[in-house]
Design a protein that fits this description.
Blueprint lengths: L16 H18 L3 H7 L7 H7 L16 H14 L1 H21 L2 H12 L5 E4 L9 H4 L3 E5 L2 E12 L6 E8 L5 E7 L5 E5 L11 E12 L10 H36 L1 E2 L2 E2 L4 H29 L5 H26 L10 H13 L4 H13 L6
Length: 390
């Protein structure tokens, strides 16, 4: 299985031979192991744990990191892998991104060398799966200043109290990164909370219309005692949390491209098979117009992400650049999946034709890792020098 024809500007050509083999391995794995089963899991809102060993064998967790558990590969490849997963199923891309990006990234960017050695190699092998607990029931976009989960020092331990919401992977994760406000300094600190720690409980969030395969949890922390050794030594303010989010926000932009591509590719296949008025609908001018608009959206978004990844690889990416990509790509994604559903007519709402799944999942990608409005304000502050936040 080679490069898809939907890579209209040949962006995969920017990868070297080894990187292309990794991407090809992911593509083949997804086609063989994920695509045939994912709609059934989406309907039942269950996670396909049976794919984890195969995913682990690909060696893609922590791919862009140096040091323990890292793959020492470019962010460009990491982003293209996120796109590749999302074009088959955005939930699998999210599962991978939470573990490899948010959880492993928190330890990589904010952990001590000892902490990296302790956790990252096992996480890279998927022997321990991670989650990332920042969002709260009453603190989403306002997490920087509104975080209410508290951390209180008690000798060689910290006592965590509060709640987290929408935490992907948390129902089964072995390690959850919890961000909490120090009651003494009022600064936001990071902690690694291990599974089955007393006082740490998770409740699955059901009845979702998007990313139904992702197992989100409402977390309650009731007097959870965490040793000082589990406090991320380099996480001493929300600015440190922001370093993780800068990296992963770029990955979400890539996921948005993948979600849009998945819908476009199913719509393109449908158009070349569906007949009306005695001919394939792909031969109608209005259908071709929809297809070209979708291709333009995905190509423009992918090229933007390529440059952002190259800035990351050079150590030059900024919060505003990541936010612009996330905002732009998710808007174009939302438009593209809508065009795909429109092209399929009534069949667009049937899961048998796949597009409806991408339409629904796009709604979650549009909102998480910073809404369009919040990311717009980050960029607006950067270009004007004036903060317009409340």
């Amino acid at each position: 299985m080679g490069a898809p024809t939907t890579d209209f500007y040949g962006l995969e050509g920017l990868l070297d031979d080894d990187e292309r083999q990794i991407l090809l391995g992911m593509r083949e794995f997804l086609a063989r192991e994920v695509a045939p089963i994912i709609t059934d899991h989406w309907v039942r809102a269950t996670f396909p744990f049976e794919i984890v060993p195969g995913l682990a064998a690909l060696g893609t967790a922590g791919l862009a990191f140096d040091g323990p558990g890292g793959g020492r590969r470019r962010f460009l490849l990491d982003g293209m892998l996120a796109m590749e997963m999302a074009r088959v199923d955005p939930s699998i891309a999210t599962f991978h991104g939470v573990h490899s990006g948010l959880a492993m990234g928190s330890i990589q960017l904010c952990g001590s060398e000892e902490q990296k050695e302790r956790w990252l190699p096992a996480m890279a092998r998927w022997e321990k799966i991670g989650a990332f607990g920042l969002t709260e029931p009453d603190a989403g976009s306002g997490a920087a200043g509104g975080l209410t989960t508290t951390a209180t020092r008690d000798g060689d331990e910290w006592v965590l109290d509060g709640e987290k919401k929408w935490i992907g992977n948390a129902t089964f994760a072995d390690l959850t990164i919890i961000w909490a406000r120090d009651t003494a300094s009022d600064e936001v600190l990071g902690f690694v909370v291990e599974k089955d720690t007393p006082g740490f409980s998770t409740e699955p969030i059901g009845d979702k219309i998007a990313l139904r395969v992702v197992q989100n949890a409402h977390i309650t922390l009731d007097g959870v005692r965490v040793p000082e050794a589990n406090r991320l030594q380099g996480a001493n303010s929300f600015e440190d949390t922001g370093r993780v989010l800068l990296m992963t926000r770029a990955g979400v932009a890539w996921m948005a491209v993948g979600c849009a591509l998945g819908a476009y590719e199913h719509a393109l296949a449908y158009a070349t098979e569906r007949e009306q008025f005695g001919q394939k609908i792909a031969g109608f001018q209005l259908i071709q117009d929809l297809l070209v608009q979708m291709l333009g959206n995905t190509t423009a978004s992918a090229t933007l992400c390529v440059q952002l990844s190259q800035l990351q690889d050079a150590g030059k990416a900024t919060d505003a650049q990541a936010s612009l990509a996330k905002a732009f790509c998710t808007v174009r994604m939302r438009e593209t999946v809508g065009y795909a559903r429109e092209l399929l007519g009534g069949n667009g709402i049937l899961l048998d034709h796949q597009v409806g799944r991408f339409v629904a999942d796009a709604e979650a990608i549009y909102s998480y890792e910073g809404t369009r409005e919040i990311n717009t304000l980050i960029v607006g502050r950067d270009i004007t020098g004036i903060g317009a936040f409340v």
